[in-house]
Specification:
By secondary structure, this protein is an alpha/beta fold. Helices cover 45% and strands 15% of the residues. Strand 9, helix 10 and strand 10 form a beta-alpha-beta unit. The longest helix has 21 residues. The radius of gyration is 19 Å and the shape is globular. The protein binds 1,3-dihydroxyacetonephosphate.
């Protein structure tokens, strides 16, 4: 595929008012999510839950693409329509998580490296035949005593760059996700420093690996206080620090930056994105690729009971709508009350 076509798909992924739904929870992660609502993680329950999300009427106004897990790309709705085809028929691009998870990095206690490069070219060819238009690879950077090391940051950047090049070679737009975790007790300043180092290393590696910046999407963490930090930075501070870090490290040729939510509550993740877009214009689209922050209310509302599907879909559509508004800085706290009134 030409780089022009990759750029077109990347632009579609960050079309005005739209963002990406991350529904690519691996087997372990979806089990955790279903455990939280006391639902067994069977293949049928996973399928039914994803069908509920993908068939929600109206999401196509706010959702440009959905990231799927391997199992889900091979599953179908109850009416027999394959999920990839179902999404495509609604104008939503199907994408696929292609990494094999973050594993312990040798000689680096407490640090991870993402695996999945072996055989990736062949797997990508199959995903193309199954209708995928883009891919995702998540690298994890942990903040702690004396970490992250430059070794960990560089090893992960190398993996992301090799993955991105292979994806573009296959005609798939790579979502490049270096996630600095927010689980520690660090200040926002430390998060900014580590995010700067991670992004600098990632864009250097992407350059070395000849990746076309116009044909990729960056999926970073926001610059934010660690969960355990006693002083939590406010919305304005998070927005300013995040935009400063991105401005310093992300070339303007990248069409879009779609944030992960990383454990932020749904309304806070929306408020942060909204504040950043209110500071615009920016050289790139600033959008969302949330998992938990788009799905949490719907998952709870569903609770594994088909009778609750209409409620769960209303809750899901509402989060899509709030984040769609945050794409232009038009989100307001008052929108949070709308779904209860519905
Ligand atoms: P969260 O928004 O729940 O962090 O998930 C996004 C994602 O895809 C992480 O890889």
């Amino acid at each position: 595929m030409s780089t022009d076509n990759l750029a077109k798909i990347a632009q579609q992924m960050v079309a005005p008012g739209k963002g990406i739904l991350a529904a690519d929870e691996s087997s372990g992660t979806i089990q955790k999510r279903l455990d939280s609502i006391n639902v067994e993680s069977t293949e049928e329950n996973r399928r039914a839950y994803r069908e509920l999300l993908f068939t929600t009427e109206g999401i196509e106004e706010y959702i440009s693409g959905v990231i799927l897990f391997d199992e889900t790309l091979r599953q179908s709705a109850a009416n027999g329509t394959n999920f990839g085809a179902l999404l495509a028929s609604r104008g939503i691009l199907p994408g696929i998580k292609v990494d094999k998870g973050a594993k312990d990095l040798a000689f680096a206690p407490g640090e991870k490296v993402t695996e999945g490069l072996d055989g990736l070219r062949e797997r990508l060819a199959e995903y193309v035949s199954l209708g995928a238009k883009f891919t995702k690879w998540r690298a994890v950077i942990t903040i702690g005593e004396g970490i992250p090391s430059a070794y960990c940051i560089d090893a992960n950047a190398h993996g992301l760059a090799r993955y991105a090049a292979l994806s573009q070679e296959a005609g798939l737009v790579p979502i490049v996700e270096p996630e600095v975790l927010m689980d520690a007790d660090n200040t926002i300043e430390v998060c900014e420093e580590v995010t700067n180092e991670a992004l600098e290393s990632v864009f250097h590696a992407l350059h070395v690996h000849r990746v076309s910046l116009e044909g990729m999407i960056l999926k970073p963490n926001m610059v934010i206080s660690g969960k355990g930090c006693t002083t939590q930075a406010g919305v304005g501070e998070v927005a300013e620090a995040t935009v400063r870090s991105l401005t310093r490290n992300v070339p303007a040729a990248v069409p879009g930056i779609c944030f992960l939510s990383g454990g932020q509550s749904d309304a806070v993740a929306t408020a942060h994105l909204n504040a950043m877009n209110a500071m615009g214009p920016h050289p790139w689209e600033l959008s969302f690729s949330y998992g938990r922050a788009l799905q949490a209310p719907a998952l709870k509302g569903w609770g594994g009971d088909a009778a609750n599907a209409p409620l769960a879909q209303r809750l899901f559509l509402h989060r899509c709508k709030c984040n769609g508004a945050a794409r232009t800085g038009a989100y307001e706290d008052a929108m949070e009350g709308e779904v209860a009134a519905a």
